[in-house]
Design a protein that fits this description.
globular, binds 5'-O-[(R)-(carboxyoxy)(hydroxy)phosphoryl]adenosine, alpha/beta, binds zinc ion, 5-stranded mixed beta sheet
C-alpha cells in the first residue's frame, strides 16, 4: 500500500510517500520519497513559532514538496488526468488557502494522477491555523485523486516512528512511551500496538518549551533545545566548574507527572541575579539546566518502567534528539539491570517529519480507519491517551 503523509502541525512543512506491507508481526516499508522544509529561520526573529506566518509558509511549501516527493518516488507523470471540473472543485475546497489553491490547481492541470492508495494527514495536536493548511490540502488532493484520508494524531506519529527505529519490528509489550516535545511531556503505556493509556504528564510547561524558554532567557536563538545541548556539551568537555544548583521539580513525587515551569523560573532568577554573563557562565547554566531536566525525565521513566513491568521503552518527540537525554535513559536502564528494549529515533526522525505520519497512517489505513473528509477538523489539543 502506498501512503502519502502530510505534516504541518508546527514549523516544519513535510511530505512523504511510503510503500508499506504487513501488520506489526510482519511489517516492512520503503520510503519512496521524503522531503521537508523547516521554517526555523523565518520564525527566529520572533523567538518562537508565529502561527500565521507558519500557515502562510505551509501554503507556499506544500505543492513544491509534493512535486519533489512524487518525483523521488517516480510517480510523477505528465498525462493530463485530472479534469477541469475537478480542478475547479479543488479551487473551491482551497478557497480560503489562497496561494495553496492556485499552486495546486496549476499542479493538477500539469501532472496526472499518481498511483497512491491513501493520504495520511496530521489533524492535531498542534497550531490550528497550521494544521488546517495540511488538512485542507489533504482534502483537496483526496478529492482530485479520489483517495481515502486517514487523520493522524501527531503524537502517535512520534510513538510509531520511534518504536520502529530498532533492529527489528518484534516489539514486546507492555511498551512505555516517553513523549518529549515542544508541546508535550507524557508517559504513555501500551499493552498492545497503538493502544494508549496515560500514566502521567506535565502539569505546566512541556520540556521542549522549557528548553526554548530557558534559551530565550539566556539570549540564545530559537529553537533553544539544540543551542542548550551544544553549550552543555562544551561545559562537560571543558570540565567547567558547577557553581549553580537548579531544582529537580517533582523528582521524588509519588506519581508520573512532571513540572518544568519552576525550573524555568529558577533559571530566570539565576540570570537576573548574576552580574557576570561570560561564556563560561552560560555554558555552566546550560549544563545544569540540561542535567536537571534529564534527571527528572529519567527518574519518572524508571519509576514507570519498574511499576508496569515494561519490556520496551520508546522515546519520541523533538527533545529525544538530545544526546545527553538519550544516553542518560539508556544508561539508567543498564544500571538497573533491566532487560528492556530501548528505542530512540535518529536525530532527524526525532523532530517533526512526514514519515512518522505516513507510518502511523498506514497502520490505520490497513484497518480501513478512514474518515469522511468533511468530518476532519484541526484539533489543537487532540489527546493521544487518557
Ligand atoms: O517534536 P518537535 O519537533 O515539535 C513538536 O511537536 O513540538 O519538538 C520540538 C521541540 C522544541 O522545543 C525544540 O527545542 C526541542 O524539541 N528540541 C530539543 C533538541 N532538538 C529539538 N531539545 C533538546 N535538545 C535537542 N537537541
Ligand atoms: Zn512533534
Amino acid at each position: 500500500m502506498k501512503i502519502l503523509g502530510i505534516e504541518t502541525s508546527c514549523d516544519e512543512t513535510a511530505v512523504c510517500i511510503i510503500e508499506a506491507a504487513g501488520d506489526l508481526t510482519d511489517f516492512s516499508y520503503t520510503v519512496l520519497g521524503n522531503s521537508l522544509i523547516s521554517q526555523t529561520e523565518i520564525h527566529k526573529p520572533y523567538g518562537g513559532v508565529f502561527p500565521n506566518l507558519a500557515k502562510r509558509e505551509h501554503g507556499r511549501n506544500l505543492v513544491p514538496l509534493l512535486g519533489d516527493v512524487l518525483r523521488q518516488a517516480d510517480l510523477l507523470n505528465e498525462e493530463r488526468a485530472v479534469e477541469e471540473k475537478v480542478v475547479q472543485g479543488v479551487e473551491r475546497i482551497l478557497d480560503r488557502e489562497h496561494e495553496l489553491g492556485e499552486f495546486l490547481a496549476t499542479f493538477l492541470r500539469t501532472y496526472g494522477i499518481p498511483k497512491i492508495d491513501a493520504i495520511a494527514v496530521t489533524s492535531g495536536p498542534g497550531l490550528e491555523p497550521a494544521l488546517w493548511v495540511g488538512i485542507n490540502f489533504a482534502k483537496a488532493l483526496a478529492f482530485a485523486w479520489n483517495l481515502p484520508i486517514v487523520p493522524v494524531n501527531h503524537m502517535e506519529g512520534h510513538v510509531v516512528i520511534s518504536a520502529l527505529s530498532g533492529k527489528n519490528n518484534h516489539l514486546k509489550f507492555p511498551l512505555l512511551s516517553l513523549l518529549i516535545s515542544g508541546g508535550h511531556t507524557e508517559l504513555v503505556l501500551s499493552n498492545d500496538w497503538m493502544h494508549y493509556k496515560l500514566l502521567g504528564q506535565t502539569r505546566d510547561d512541556a520540556v521542549g518549551e522549557a528548553f526554548d524558554k530557558v534559551a530565550r532567557l539566556m539570549e540564545l536563538p530559537y529553537p533553544g533545545g539544540p543551542e542548550i545541548e551544544r553549550l552543555a556539551r562544551e561545559a562537560r568537555e571543558k570540565n567547567i566548574e558547577r557553581a549553580i544548583r537548579l531544582p529537580r521539580p517533582m523528582i521524588d513525587s509519588d506519581d508520573y507527572d512532571f513540572s518544568f515551569a519552576g525550573l524555568k523560573t529558577a533559571v530566570r532568577k539565576v540570570v537576573e541575579s548574576s552580574e557576570v554573563k561570560v561564556e563560561k557562565f552560560t555554558m555552566m547554566l546550560a549544563r545544569e539546566f540540561e542535567d536537571a531536566a534529564t534527571e527528572v525525565l529519567v527518574a519518572k521513566t524508571m519509576r514507570a518502567l519498574d511499576d508496569h513491568g515494561v519490556k520496551t521503552l520508546v522515546v519520541g518527540g523533538g527533545v529525544s534528539a538530545n544526546t545527553h537525554i538519550k544516553e542518560a535513559l539508556a544508561q539508567a536502564v543498564r544500571d538497573y539491570g533491566l532487560d528492556i528494549d530501548v528505542r530512540i529515533p535518529s536525530r532527524d526522525l526525532a523532530t517533526d517529519n512526514a514519515l512518522m505520519i505516513a507510518l502511523a497512517g498506514y497502520f490505520h489505513a490497513q484497518k480501513k480507519e478512514f474518515a469522511v473528509p468533511d468530518s476532519i477538523r484541526a484539533e489543537g489539543n487532540l489527546k493521544l491517551a487518557y
